[in-house]
Structure formats: C-alpha cells, structure tokens
Amino acid sequence: MNLQDTCQPTASDNGGFDIQHIWHTVTVALPRHPYDILIGPGLLTDLGSDLNSFGLASRYIIITDSNVEDFLALDLVELLRQSGIHADLVSFPAGEESKHMNTVVQLAKRMIALGADRQSAILALGGGVVGDVAGFLASIYMRGIPFVQIPTTLLAQVDSSVGGKTGVDLPEGKNLLGTFCQPARVYADIGVLATLPGTEIRNGLAEVIKYGMIRSPDLFQFLEERWWDVINLEPETTAHIVSSSCTIKADVVVKDEREGGLRRILNFGHTIGHAVEAAADYKIAHGEAVAIGMAVISTLAATRGLMDQSDLTRLNNLLDRFDLPRHVPAGLRTVSLIHLLQHDKKSADGKVHFVLPEGIGRVVISDQVTTEEIESAIDACRPDTT
User: Which are the catalytic amino acids?
Assistant: First the structure.
C-alpha cells in the first residue's frame, strides 16, 4: 500500500449525524478517493457519533494551535470521550511562523510518545496553518495515516481545507515543502465562525471573492447584493458562500488533482499575494495579501484590454465593501516583489504562470506576462495612485 492509499480513505454515508446539522454536502468526487465536505451549524456536536459510524481509526490525535486549544479543542476532546472515542490533544504555537519542518518533527515526536500508530488518525482542528501542518504530518507519519479536516476559520472552510494540498514554509518562500494528501472528510461547522474577529472573516472573504472571479458571476453578484448578511454571518448566507466556494474548488480539483493545468486558476491573486506576504515578513494576513494580489493582476488585465474597466471597478468596490486592502503597501519595494515572484514555486522553465481575469467569472492562464507589466500594475496600485 502506498502513501496515497493510506492517507485518502473513501467517503461514507452520514449515518452518525443528526440530519438537522447538515445543511449542505459537497462531494469531492476523485475517482480513487472521494470524500465529503459537510457544511452546517453544530456539526461538532455529533462529530463523535459520525466518527464511530465512519470507522476511520481506532484512536485519534487532535492537532491544533494555541489559539484554538483553549476555546474549542478541550471541549471537543470531552465530546469525543463521551462518544467512547480515545482522542489526545497536541498543539503548537499559533501563527505562520510555526509553519515549518521543526514544528512537524516536534508534533511527530509527541505522537510517538502518545503511542500513535498506523491505526491512528489525525483530526486537524484549526485554520489554514493547522490544516497544512497536520495534513503534511499525516501524509508522512509512518508513511501515511488518515486525517480529517475540521476548519475553524472562514478561509479554511472555503479554501485551504479542501483539495489535499499540505505543506510548510522555508525562508525562501511559502509551502516549498509539501505533499498532496486528501482528507478523509471535512467538517465545516459554520457555528464556530461566530467566535472569530472581523479581521478573520474578511480574511476568508478574499478567497470567496476569488471563487466568484474565476468561476461564478452568480456568487460574485450574491456577495455584492448580500454583503451585509455576509459580513454579519447570517447562517443561511454563510452556508451558501461556503458551499458555493467548496463546490467550485471540488470541481476544479477533481479535474486536476495535482495542479497540472486547470487547478492553476485557484491561484488567482495568490502569485502576487504570496510575494506580498513574504516581502512583509508574513505580517500581512493571507487573505489580505490575496486581495492585494487580485487588485494588482486585475489592473494588469484591464491595462491589457483583457478585462473591462467596469469589471475592475466592481472588483475594487467589493474589496472596499469588505474592508479588504487593494493597495500595495508603500514599504514593500517593487523590486523586492519582482524578485520573490521570480522564485515562485509554481514557475516552470523559469516562467511564472499568472491567472488573468477576462471578466467576472472568467480567467485565463498565461506565462507571457512581462516584468514591465507587473511593475506598472504594482505601481498603479500604490496608495497615492488609486
């Protein structure tokens, strides 16, 4: 049995759940290893019974960070215990600065000390950093054990918990070490989002806007028209944007699991966004960096004549509506951003692939973007020029 076989069990029915908690189910219909994304409020209440029904492992290791440990993880351990499930809790310091190999090694040593073996499974409870680190560890621990994603941020629920990408950072860039390892299941409990500060909600909304831009004019328009409900986490609205985002990503991942072509469209705003993050020493949140990246690359597309100015205006207005940045901070030098772009891990044969919008809901991938075009778009998005 190879690594991929061990870390990607197939989907099962929802026999362990009270159906009132499941508002949407999105299936990532990969041929070898399909799995379900369950979306709704209160899912964690029935998590223990569902895991018992699923029969994924004999015991579980909950991996979380220091932020989630206090307000949610300890309660989850007790809920699982009441369902007869043996679950141990392991945490690491919250933040992007913990997303490196030393964290993975330390977590692995903790699991060994707890007696975790190949019949164990990992529950990744937290945001994108937790999902990336825990998924990476699951893919290599004893050559691969199953893991489940339990995303607790909007960004993780709509994006990073789905699709099977795991990884850690190097000083040279984000996610330069990683694997593709699909989760066995994703539980997107929208009820936990109520505990998040507004900055975290906005962070996730950048990814939702991305999905509207690359594939869904309807989702984009929904965000424009229902912005107040979106910001205030109205339950049906929240479930809709999570489900819509996951449906789009699932469709793309099924067609291109390992980013050979189509999946690159999911990087809209990310290529420049990752450079912004790195140049800012990760003091700019991922979603905010992606928002800046979307504004810059859309400005470039409009300058080329690929995208109507009216669509660029709609994007900028929506970013403003959700209080997301679209200006490149003055302290980030253009030359530094260009240098980081040239070392992007998604480059091929020395060429960086950019996702260029043709309008709301339509994008193309191009490796024919000049340095001069990028510099001009970055400078056009400086605070004193827009």
Answer: 143, 165, 207, 249, 259, 263, 267, 270, 274, 286
Asked if residue 280 and residue 313 are part of one domain, the reply reads: yes
User: Quick one: pLDDT at residue 23?
Assistant: 87
CA pair distance 57, 38, nearest whole angstrom: 19
What is this structure's pTM? 0.91
DSSP-derived pairing of the beta strands 87-92 and 59-65: parallel
Q: Do residues 52 and 109 both lie within one domain?
A: yes
In the block, tokens 């793309």 appear at 252
Per the structure, the complete domain to which residue 51 belongs is given by: 3-195
* Position 15 pLDDT exceeds 90: no
Residues 24-46: what's their mean pLDDT?
A: 94
Q: What share of the chain is helix, strand, coil (3-state, %, to 5)?
A: 55, 15, 30
Q: Which helix (H) or strand (E) holds 186?
A: strand 186-189
232 falls within a domain: yes
Does residue 386 lie in a domain region? no
Q: Which residue, 150, 129, 1, 127, is CA-closest to 61? A: 150
